[in-house]
Write a structure and sequence with these properties.
By secondary structure, this protein is mainly beta. The chain is built from no helices and 11 strands. The radius of gyration is 14 Å and the shape is globular.
Length: about 120
Amino acid sequence: QVRLEESGGGLVHPGGSLKLSCVTSGSKWSFENMGWYRQAQGREREQVATINSGGRTTYADSVKGRFIISRRNPVNTVNLEMNNLKPEDQAVYYCNANGKWPKDYNIWGQGTQVTVSS
């Protein structure tokens, strides 16, 4: 019943920017961790950025200085601001929530396509 839904994907030129958003429905608690992952065609899914309930963030080396993750508490929304996009950023981007209380959980959205092309 808890769902994550991504939005904001689309087509951009190299060097352009996009902002992705993830909204939550059906949750009655603050997720311990939220993050963005991506999967490019023919490649494995990789972690892009994460943020915990206290605001601590992590970033993949490939996006440091270009992407910014943020969240709004206690409503469990998370955004990803993407700047200076490169062709290698093209992928389906997925929102994730995970934690251990009240029990282990790992929730995924359906994904949003980001295409970077001239």
